[in-house]
């Protein structure tokens, strides 16, 4: 969610590299329909005429994600977030500065913090699915996944009670505004601008308040850091961290739940394994991993070679831009037998949460939310109301725009 004064236009770059318009309906509906022909032509590493690399192999993507010779490059004084704050979020910062910034909020994502949140998440799911049962027909995106992700994110950030409704709207616009393929309609742009101003004003106020001595929320931790006498956290950096958590943790989780349920409903033969075993928590947990592999909500990561390097046998000169197609890595035939088949018992590794120093901080949270929501919904024997779905305009994140379902029995 950070741009520099001289941004690389990711969408244009990818469009040239995979030789297609990534904003097109066809690409959004089926990115693998573009990356698989590229893999057949070029193998795991595709070099474009401009010298940039597109990585399609699991091993190659994993290597780059882990190797410190690939990163985002030094921060500059000109770094500015999409919403105008002079900072660079840690998603786009290299170690060791990255580790320092990530460490400031990681306390909100520990196993203990997750265990504390679990009963609240269970309650949110129960309430939302209960309401869905009363209405029978709902949109999974708007009525279930978004309110769940927003409530959980509000808790993790430590927003004051009652703020949630406002937060949903602001977060959505904020995330939309961070996408390089954002809406260009004037009305949409104006709404995004208002949300950005609102976000910066609100979070600046929250972060400046007297810190709670022992609170574990993100805002508590950052507010303590700002108030510290020695080496205080910069306010701009703290706002950027909150912005990044919203950018990274909101639509992605919505995507996992909505894409996941859509995948289950459009693969009845495969998903029938959950009918007999849905009471078995492990079966759904394993299924969630396969859904992450099969339809990753984040399908692209980008790195730059910080020094001359290599990926496998391929020489990579310093400055080369590498686009990691996570969706393609997750379908690598060298790693997965029959990679285009959904196998909910497959389990195993995937790159949907990245790897290495930038491995998704919210992965346990996202897994928990998806597991609880999908289990509850599946027990209500959902059916698709609309067969055809369209996909969001997002460039890095990809999810079904809406997903209308009907619950046919009372969810457990
Ligand atoms: C990083 C995916 C949910 C917070 C990442 C990355 C991926 C990812 C692929 C690595 C990006 C890169 O290396 O360039 C996802 C998916 C999610 C999800 C698919 C949902 C299914 C969440 C949630 C949160 C979160 C719920 C927090 C509330 C973060 C943060 C980073 C990150 C802070 C940056 C970590 C760093 O740079 O050290 N996520 N994410 N994510 N994610 Fe997630």
From TrEMBL:
State whether keyword rRNA-binding applies.
no
Question: Taxonomic lineage per UniProt?
Answer: Bacteria, Bacillati, Actinomycetota, Actinomycetes, Kitasatosporales
Is Heme set as a keyword in this record?
Answer: yes
Q: Name one GO molecular function term.
A: oxidoreductase activity, acting on paired donors, with incorporation or reduction of molecular oxygen
Pfam families per record: p450 (PF00067)
UniProt entry keywords in alphabetical sequence:
Heme, Iron, Metal-binding, Monooxygenase, Oxidoreductase
Record the organism. Answer: Streptomyces hundungensis
Family listed: Belongs to the cytochrome P450 family.
Q: What is this protein called?
A: Biotin biosynthesis cytochrome P450
Gene this chain is encoded by? bioI_1
Q: Where are the transmembrane segments?
A: none
């Amino acid at each position: 969610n950070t741009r520099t004064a001289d941004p690389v236009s990711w969408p244009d770059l990818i469009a040239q590299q995979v030789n297609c318009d990534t904003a097109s309906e066809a690409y959004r509906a089926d990115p693998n329909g573009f990356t698989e022909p590229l893999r057949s032509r070029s193998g795991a590493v595709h070099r474009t005429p401009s010298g940039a690399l597109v990585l399609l192999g699991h091993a190659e993507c994993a290597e780059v994600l882990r190797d410190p010779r690939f990163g985002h490059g030094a921060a500059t004084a000109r770094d500015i977030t999409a919403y105008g704050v002079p900072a660079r979020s840690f998603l786009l910062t290299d170690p060791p500065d990255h580790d320092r910034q990530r460490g400031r909020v990681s306390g909100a994502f520990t196993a203990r913090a997750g265990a504390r949140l679990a009963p609240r998440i269970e309650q949110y799911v129960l309430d939302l699915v209960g309401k869905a049962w009363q209405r029978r027909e709902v949109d999974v995106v708007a009525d279930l996944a978004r309110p769940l992700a927003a409530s959980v994110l509000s808790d993790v950030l430590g927003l004051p009670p009652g703020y949630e409704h406002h937060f949903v709207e602001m977060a959505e616009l904020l995330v939309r505004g961070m996408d390089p393929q954002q809406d260009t309609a004037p009305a949409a742009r104006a709404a995004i601008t208002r949300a950005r101003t609102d976000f910066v004003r609100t979070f600046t106020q929250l972060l400046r308040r007297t810190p709670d001595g022992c609170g574990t929320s993100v805002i508590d931790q950052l507010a303590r850091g700002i108030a510290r006498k020695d080496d205080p956290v910069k306010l701009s950096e703290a706002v950027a961290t909150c912005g990044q958590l919203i950018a990274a943790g909101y639509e992605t989780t919505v995507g996992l739940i909505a894409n996941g349920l859509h995948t289950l409903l459009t693969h009845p033969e495969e998903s029938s394994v959950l009918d007999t075993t849905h009471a078995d928590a492990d079966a759904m947990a394993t299924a969630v991993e396969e859904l992450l592999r099969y339809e990753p909500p984040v399908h692209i990561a980008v790195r730059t070679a910080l020094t001359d390097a290599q990926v496998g046998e391929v020489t990579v000169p310093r400055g080369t831009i590498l686009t990691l197609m996570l969706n393609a890595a997750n379908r690598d035939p060298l790693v997965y037998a029959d990679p285009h088949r959904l196998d909910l018992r497959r389990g195993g590794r995937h790159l949907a949460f990245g790897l290495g120093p930038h491995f998704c901080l919210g992965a346990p949270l996202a897994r928990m939310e998806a597991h609880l929501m999908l289990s509850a919904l599946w027990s209500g024997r959902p059916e698709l109301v609309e067969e055809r779905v369209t996909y969001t305009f997002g460039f890095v994140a990809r999810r079904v725009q809406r997903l209308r379902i009907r619950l046919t029995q009372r969810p457990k």
